[in-house]
Specification:
The chain is an alpha/beta fold. Helices cover about 40% and strands about 20% of the residues. The chain is built from eleven helices and twelve strands. Strand 9 (about 215-220), helix 10 (about 225-235) and strand 10 (about 240) form a beta-alpha-beta unit. Helix 4 runs antiparallel to helix 5 (about 95-125) and helix 5 (about 95-125) crosses helix 6. The chain is elongated. The relative contact order is 0.16.
Length: about 280
């Protein structure tokens, strides 16, 4: 993330996280460090994984101390090992102490997502299929979590409800059927918007194709049914498979031939990566 992106999209969210942790003052820090003193602390990796979120980590401290300095040995997307010294943060000791937990919360969460995403993306490397995330993100963390997916080698599906048309089962039910839902979406939406339709069987697939859908989401189908769906849709629409896709079961989908595989697990089930700020001392 560059500085413009950071200021436009994340500063307000980071400040909200800091205010959640510090409602009036950091009483512990102020009791042991009542006045300014410069210090430094080391960011240490305690688990193998993929780094993501270093700019967000830095921004937490910058918002508390505009004199803070960073010396980083790694960048987002780098593979790190347990025991690696990722970098050093230098600044007002009060800011280092008060910002520590919030900064690590972002970096651990984002690095965990990047690490988990990379583990699945690697399994799809030999295929034409791209790995997508979903909107199953932590509230107010979407911009960070979707960024982490990209760092890990995945691709972003639509960012939010304003970003694309995806007619799911309840939309289809509300419209009265697949044909009706696609027709209504075509009439309402700008012509530049693609229309994706979620289908659960081959009959719905045929309806969606006949109605002119651009992308077909094959939801919770068997492997054999998905292979047949891809054969039927060939050249008429792109295909995406979804439904409880995890690292443990994604390999069964590699040879199906879909264009995309979407996985909510990338953001809702990835464990954090263990990172720590250690060896704080005055300089």
């Amino acid at each position: 993330m560059n500085n413009i992106t950071m200021k436009l999209n994340t500063d307000e969210l980071i400040m909200s996280a800091l205010r959640e942790d510090i409602t009036s003052e950091d009483i512990t820090t102020n009791s042991v460090m009542p006045e300014y003193r410069r210090g430094e602390v080391q960011l240490i990796c305690k688990q193998d994984g993929i780094l993501a979120g270093l700019d967000v980590f830095k921004r937490v401290f910058e918002l508390l101390d505009d004199t803070v300095e960073f010396e980083m040995n790694y960048a987002d997307g780098d593979e790190v090992k347990n025991g690696d010294l990722i970098g050093t943060v230098t600044g007002d000791i009060r800011a280092l102490l008060s910002g520590e937990r919030t900064a690590l919360n972002y970096l651990q969460r984002m690095s965990g997502i990047a690490t988990y995403t990379r583990s699945i993306a690697d399994l799809l490397e030999s295929s034409k299929t791209k790995l997508l995330d979903t909107r199953k993100t932590t509230p107010n963390m979407r911009v960070f979590e979707k960024y982490a997916v990209k760092v890990g080698g995945g691709c972003n599906h639509r960012y939010n409800l304003s970003d694309g048309i995806l007619l799911k089962d309840n939309h289809i039910g509300a419209a009265g059927g697949v044909k009706e839902a696609v027709a209504m979406a075509k009439e309402y939406a700008p012509f530049v918007r693609k229309i994706e339709v979620e289908v659960e069987n081959l009959e719905m697939l045929q309806e969606a194709l006949d109605a002119g859908a651009d992308i077909i989401m094959l939801d919770n189908m068997s492997v054999d049914m998905m292979k047949e769906a891809v054969r039927i849709a060939a050249g008429r629409a792109q295909t995406e498979c979804s439904g409880n896709v995890t690292r443990e079961n994604v390999e069964r989908l590699v040879d199906i031939g879909v264009d995309y595989i979407s996985s909510g697990a990338l953001t809702h089930s990835s464990p954090i990566m263990d990172l720590s700020l250690k060896n704080l001392h005055a300089i």
